[in-house]
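Box 3.1 A note on notation
Throughout this textbook, protein chains are presented in two layers. The first layer is the amino acid sequence; the second is a token string describing backbone geometry. Keep the layers aligned when reading.
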Amino acid sequence: MNNKIFKYIKYLSYVLLLLGVGVFGYFVVASALYPEPATEFPVGTVGNAMGVNVMLIYAYVVFAVALVLAIVFPVINILSNPKGAMRTLVGLVAMIVIFGISYLLASDAPVPNPAENGFFTNAATLKLTDVGLYSAYAIFVIAILVILWGEIRSAVKRS
């Protein structure tokens, strides 16, 4: 890809990093200056509701930027290198398979909720949570295996 694009992405990451530090600073100051009564939040929760809202909004903005870049860069890569499109498609199919298997393994059984002396019963949320967890576990294991494979392969080639 073009080095000019990487330069702009580097600047964008610096801006997002500085904004993140500013948002975190606002959260800390808002929490210290305007503490909420202990009865407003469950035990162990800290911070002003407005500070939390600002942090959540910033998290949504960063997520949106990452999502857009995760969609745009593979498209640019496919258009600039059509022969490399096959590798991209293999990766995409592998991710779809991982998420599909995770969905099949996921459960929507109710989970105890000690905060309200009841159960979490929203089936869709429970299913998606399990899919996210199983997918993360699978990707972590695959990453470890790829790292080990690369080390073993390079050790064998050296000898």
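The chain is about 75% helix and 5% strand. The CA atoms of residues 27 and 112 lie 31 Å apart.
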